[in-house]
């Protein structure tokens, strides 16, 4: 039988003022996007696949790797070793997540009022305020972290004020310790929370808040129903930008926490350096990558 409705040829698409067929569209995309895709594949995707593959291999007798497929690295990370269950690495994982979450929460509490304040001042003051927010980036992270060692010394007013609140033991420094690590990370990652949050606050339609107030809503209800939905993209972006790098941080825990506050980044650095256990370090890196991808997935679902 003859088909009464033959398929018509696909019409060329109009893009950027030009008519492109499907083949022309693919050629144009390959010309402009191809180099970037190849660059990302060679320098990002391929190394990640190599690290993932190494995580399933076995550590050699003197370090390095042996080509024996195994899940021992992941079992060890979960706490199951040759001598039974050891909670060391699960505790480090939970500690990293807890410190990352606490850093994001404290940064949000400090950044939200600051972002609203910057958004309401004059244009000249906005530039000054934003400059003050990013000024810490003008100093090297190591210098800022060493400065916290001096600030958190036993004689400093910060330590005395904290001890006056009943936190810690009087006469002892706040570092090395978990509180010192938390303070250092909040100081380091605060700008990453302020900037995306400010970008959302600046675009708020304040007429919605006025309408909610006219309809009888109190301040909490106005913020919850009229303002919060408008700043969620910046809020989620800020939380992701703070939580993910804070979870894998190793410089600040190493300098302010010592051996008392090891995190995922410290363990990864140790496995690839002194321990020379590449499969176990790769397994930890893969788990950290999964956390990053989960965070990005949440951002795409909730904040984009």
Would you give an account of this structure?
By secondary structure, the protein is mainly alpha-helical. It has a single domain, classed as Orthogonal Bundle (MetI-like fold). The protein is built from twelve helices and six strands. The chain has a two-stranded antiparallel ribbon with strand order 1-2. It has a two-stranded antiparallel sheet with strand order 3-4. The chain has a two-stranded antiparallel sheet with strand order 5-6. A hairpin with a 2-residue loop joins strand 5 and strand 6. The two termini are 51 Å apart. The mean pLDDT is 83.
Outline:
The chain is mainly alpha-helical.
Question: Helicity level, as a percent range?
Answer: 55-70%
The description of the largest β-sheet is: 2 strands, antiparallel
Strand order of the largest sheet: 1-2
Radius of gyration: 26 Å
Strand content bin? under 5%
Order of helices and strands: EEHEEHEEHHHHHHHHHH
Name the poorly predicted regions.
Answer: none
Number of strand segments: 6
Instruction: Summarize model confidence as the mean pLDDT.
Output: 83
At CATH level 3, the topology is: MetI-like fold
Shape descriptor: globular
Count the DSSP helices. 12
CATH C-level: Mainly Alpha
Structural class by SSE content? mainly alpha
């Amino acid at each position: 039988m003859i088909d009464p409705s033959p398929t018509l040829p696909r019409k060329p698409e109009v893009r950027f003022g030009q008519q492109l067929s499907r083949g022309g569209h693919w050629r144009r995309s390959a010309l402009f996007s191809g180099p970037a895709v190849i660059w990302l594949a060679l320098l990002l995707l391929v190394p990640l696949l190599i690290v993932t593959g190494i995580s399933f291999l076995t550590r050699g007798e003197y370090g390095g790797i042996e080509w024996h497929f195994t899940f021992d690295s992941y079992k060890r990370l979960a706490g199951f070793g040759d001598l039974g269950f050891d909670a060391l690495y699960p505790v480090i994982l939970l500690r990293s997540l807890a410190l990352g979450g606490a850093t994001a929460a404290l940064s949000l509490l400090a950044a939200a009022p600051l972002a609203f304040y910057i958004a309401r001042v004059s244009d000249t003051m906005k530039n000054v305020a934003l400059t003050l927010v990013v000024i810490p980036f003008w100093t090297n992270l190591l210098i800022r972290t060493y400065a916290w060692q001096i600030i958190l010394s036993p004689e400093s007013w910060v330590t005395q004020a904290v001890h006056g609140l009943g936190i810690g033991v009087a006469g002892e420094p706040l570092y090395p310790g978990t509180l010192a690590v938390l303070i250092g990370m909040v100081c380091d990652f605060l700008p990453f929370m302020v900037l995306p949050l400010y970008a959302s606050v600046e675009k708020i339609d304040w007429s919605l808040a006025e309408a909610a107030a006219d309809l009888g809503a109190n301040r909490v209800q106005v913020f919850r129903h009229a303002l919060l939905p408008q700043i969620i993209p910046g809020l989620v972006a800020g939380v992701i930008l703070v939580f993910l790098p804070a979870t894998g941080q190793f410089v600040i825990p190493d300098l302010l926490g010592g051996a008392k506050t090891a995190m995922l980044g410290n363990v990864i650095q140790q496995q690839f350096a002194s321990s020379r256990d590449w499969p176990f370090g790769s397994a930890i890196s893969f788990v950290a990558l999964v956390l990053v991808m989960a965070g990005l997935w949440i951002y795409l679902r909730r904040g984009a």
